[in-house]
Amino acid sequence: MIKLNLLPDVKLNFQRARRLRARITGVAIVTTAASVGAVVLIVSYVYGVQKLQLDALNKNIASNTAKFSAIPEVNKYLTLQRQLEKIDALHEGKNDFSRLLDFLPALNPAPPNSARITNIELQAGDESIGTSPILKLKGEVADYTALNTFVDTLRNAQLLYGGETDKLFDSVEVVTSALEDSQQGGKVVSFDITTSYNPQAFLFANKDVRINVPNIITTQSTQAAPSVFGESTVREGEEN
């Protein structure tokens, strides 16, 4: 049997377009329905499941807080715990003043210019109130030449720590000096010296801290001048 398609081409194309539109519409409806379903699920989770979880967590936190609050003297334990957490930092920031026992022999000139220290006063500085670290030395030397040498040794002493080299003392001041009778007979020069020292010298966190004293000759010491307040210094080999 022979079938003949008597529909015009225009009508045939129209029917094809209508079927294609129906398919596209169906896919769009399915996609929209799936999107709406996904949004509904997300909203349900956010405002439903997640809210229930948050409420449960808040209740758990409140319950545990109540339990901890009921423990006798719990605030003392919490305070102690916070202090323990800061111990390492405080340990690194503390001072090791025992190093002074190693520093003094290096700072004391060789005889006959050596000093006999009779009193030491060491004060740690506090930046929060603007105070500087202070080292006070009292003692006696054989004469003013020895005192000049000792003062210049302090002024030129270097502090070595962690690959750094700084001045050990920011300032050195002879507060008093006087010629007095020695208990062993003869005369000695007593002195009272106040210095402002570098706080890095005693900081516990700094390791392998050392003192270096440059080999110098003071102009006043060479000339045996009685004054101890001069600043002039020259190195060995330089002209005065």
Keywords:
alpha+beta, 44% helix, elongated, single chain, four-stranded antiparallel beta sheet, three-stranded antiparallel beta sheet, 9 strands, 240 residues
Give a verbal description of the structure:
With 240 residues, this protein is an alpha+beta fold. It folds into two domains: 1-85; 96-235. It has helices spanning 9-69, 74-85, 87-93, 100-107, 144-156, 219-223, and strands spanning 116-123, 134-141, 158-161, 164-167, 169-181, 187-197, 210-212, 216-218, 233-235. The strands form three sheets. It has a four-stranded antiparallel sheet with strand order 1-2-6-5, with helices on one face. It has a three-stranded antiparallel sheet with strand order 4-3-7. A hairpin with a 2-residue loop joins strand 3 and strand 4 (164-167). The chain is elongated and about 140 Å long.
The fraction of residues assigned to DSSP E strands is 15-25%
**Order of helical and strand elements:** HHHHEEHEEEEEEHE
Shape: elongated
Number of strands: 9
Q: Measure the end-to-end span.
A: 136 Å
Helix content: 40-55%
What's the number of domains? 2
Q: What does the largest sheet look like?
A: 4 strands, antiparallel
Q: What structural class is derived from the secondary structure elements?
A: alpha+beta
State Rg: 44 Å
Mean of pLDDT: 77
Tally of DSSP helical segments: 6
Strand order of the largest sheet: 1-2-6-5
Contiguous uncertain segments of 5+ residues: 218-240
